[in-house]
Automatic annotation (TrEMBL):
Pfam family for this entry, one: TPR_16
Keyword annotations: Repeat, Signal, TPR repeat
Protein's UniProt name: Uncharacterized protein
Extent of the TPR repeats: 108-141
Keyword 4Fe-4S (UniProt): no
Amino acid sequence: MMRQKQKALAALLAAGLFAGWFASLPAATAAGDDAAAALQARYRACARLALSDPQAGLLEAEDWARAGGGMPAQHCRATALFGVERYSEAGEAFEATAAKAQDESSRARLMSQSGRSWLQAGATERALAAFDRALQATPGDAQLLVDRAEAEAALGRDAAAIEDLSLALIIEPGLTDALVLRASAARRTGQRGQAAADLTTVLSREPANADALLERGLLHLDEGDVAAARRDWLAVLAAAPGSAAAEAAARHLTGASTDSGTAP
């Protein structure tokens, strides 16, 4: 799931968060004059570089920031820091940029990016605080609810995670990540029927969804069906080789083989 979050952040950035807080710049700058157009073009170029070549993007963003690039340069730098896996620094940088945002919507999106950075850094309490702040501004944002639920689940707060995920699914019923995360939390809290129902929904739409297959294997294992669990984990290896889900499936297969005395 964490690698999917990296992809989701990259997609959000590529979609152009800039437009959200560009509108909050002073009117003389944001009115479409030559200076505003040049600023917007430079930000987009910097953001593309930060996503495609984060190290080069970091150098460009830091040069631009030193030259007085302001919020666009700072956000580009935060993006590049995330790309070079300096996640704690990225979390701090996104938060610093959010503090300067002039509208709640922009602040919420920047805090959500900070939260994802803190999740990657393993600073789950910081991530949860960032998502809380983002949701104060945009309480009906389904993806933010999913992100906060991921932090809550990592802290062992499965009941809170299930509540957030259920609300997210009311807002956007098709959220696959929410269904898989809710299934995982439901399994851990003994709600196997709910877990099975959510996984069936996901796998009926996406039969090769590696996260759902991984989680269904764990559900089978909890029910004592080691053979079914192994089938699902082998399917994960075939569906998503080299992924985080495949690494987890391989570990579970090794454990199942040790317990059962059979080869993976």
